[in-house]
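User: structure tokens for this one?
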Amino acid sequence: MSHGGTATICGSMTYSAQASPVGTVRLVGAGPGDPDLLTVRAARLIGAAHLIVHDGLVDARILAMVVPGAELISVAKQRSRHTMQQEEINALLVARALGGEDVLRLKGGDPFIFGRGGEEVDACRAAGVPVEVVPGISAAIGCAAEALVPLTHREASSAVSFVAGQCKGLTEQDWSGLAGHGRTLVIYMGIATADAIAEKLIADGVSPGIPVAVLEKGGRPDARALRTLLADLGGLIARERVTSPAVIVVGQVAARADADRIATFAKQAELLA
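Assistant:
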């Protein structure tokens, strides 16, 4: 005989209350900014989601694609100031999914390229929460393409490396071999530490005269592409008042950066807005 979700079996009480279904967390790459650079799957998920946890780097034009009434939670991070610590973000994703909600975790660029997506996947898996990753165009790929910088080129570069310029212990790292003849180095989050980065690369054997491109706010109407040499990297950023988000490209391919093309894109975006 059953009474309101309980069943009596051979004189003992057995509880058979059904657990709430667990939601899915989807880590979705939003690309460098331009909504046209979203993958088809990313655009579909954004347009259908009712709970979105997003980074500060996600372009406002992409957030405008959400359904009316969707809950948007910003977990924006800036240098030395975080809306939420990473552990809190992990806990938020897990808690909402365990509560039965599908969570769209929207991240600038690609979730697995300096997006801490791996930590969020680990947290979900440890809690038994289904998780999916939808890749996005990374900042390096998107910004370089916009500025016509081929990160690899048969005549100039057969290898490319990505590094974080804000990581701890910058001076203790060995960057020798990452930039130079036939190699391209792309530095994320390096604007605030540009002087130290240039000094470090030169100390590790990179020529002070190697070309450098600073690609600022790629995929956005105010994008800029700036060129200089490694020895002048910090000076360029100070003179031009470069701000994040931006990536730094070091190598012969950087000399191909097309600043005029970036300016043309910006004007076209203004006309279309």
